[in-house]
Write a structure and sequence with these properties.
Length: 261
């Protein structure tokens, strides 16, 4: 009887150690904060930001009230974007000196002809791309949280972030409402249903940032509004599990090995 009890106790201890060991391997994390985009508009910035919008976006007008045209005779339309000397004081403080690094934010001025569920997209393009194709920013690691500083003017609008997973599926994530005055840090946890890990090697399958989308609510005015953006940042798990042959799951290593075939 004692011998049987001893065996049972040993089995229980072995099972607990096995579970704890497995849990420790799968739950190890190395969380890091990474800035994806500062919105500072520096000359050497890798991206420029372009816009797209829904159908009722307003035309820009000349002082005499006529529609403004570009050199090709095409009507110029909102939104207008520009880098401005403004920032969230909670991050960069009041007292900027002549020797302080320049701090700017990306401003957006929009207007629609009618109220409704209107939208404006803000997406990156590589600064050196002459064709101006949309570029998706790789997000390092397994991202847990995304945050952005946004200046709102108390309008009932909201912002979505679009990310793409390794299967090519684009996921909209609601970042939050901007119906508040001034600067505020908006953040959202990345839903667990968005795949970032494969069960085969290489297991890491990171997301890419696609764009922001600003939505207007049907009951809110849409004439001549302003929104400002600063510092898109992620909290991401950079843990890299080690095992024998770890380098052979690195796509860069695989490409180098097989590039001659």
């Amino acid at each position: 009887m004692k011998h049987s009890s001893f065996k049972i106790i040993c089995l229980i201890i072995w099972a607990c150690l096995t579970v704890f060991s497995a849990y420790g391997q799968t739950s190890a994390v190395t969380l890091e904060s990474r800035i994806l985009e500062s919105f500072n508009g520096d000359d050497n910035a890798p991206y420029i930001w372009k816009t797209d919008s829904s159908r009722f976006i307003s035309a820009l007008r000349n002082p005499d009230g006529s529609e403004a045209k570009d050199d090709n005779g095409i009507t110029k339309r909102y939104p207008i974007t520009a880098y401005v000397d403004a920032w969230p004081i909670a991050v960069f403080g009041y007292n900027r000196t002549p020797d302080s690094p320049a701090v700017r934010s990306l401003g957006l001025n929009g207007q629609f002809d009618r109220m409704g569920y209107n939208w404006i997209d803000l997406y990156p393009v590589l600064a050196d791309d002459p064709e101006g194709k949309p570029y998706e920013i790789p997000i390092p690691g397994i991202v847990k949280n995304i945050d952005l500083w946004v200046w709102g003017s108390n309008l009932r609008y909201y912002i979505e972030i679009f990310v793409r997973d390794y299967r090519g599926v684009v996921h909209p994530i609601r970042l939050g409402d901007i119906s508040y005055p001034g600067w505020r840090n908006l953040d959202v946890n990345v839903p667990s249903h968005i795949a970032q890990i494969r069960h085969i090697l290489p297991s890491y399958a990171g997301l890419t940032f696609v764009k922001f989308r600003i939505w207007t609510q049907p009951s809110e005015r849409v004439n001549n509004f302003y929104i400002y953006f600063k510092q898109l940042k992620v909290l991401t798990d950079m843990y890299n599990p080690l095992y024998d042959g770890n380098d052979l799951s690195d796509p860069a290593v695989v490409d180098r090995i097989w590039s001659g075939n």
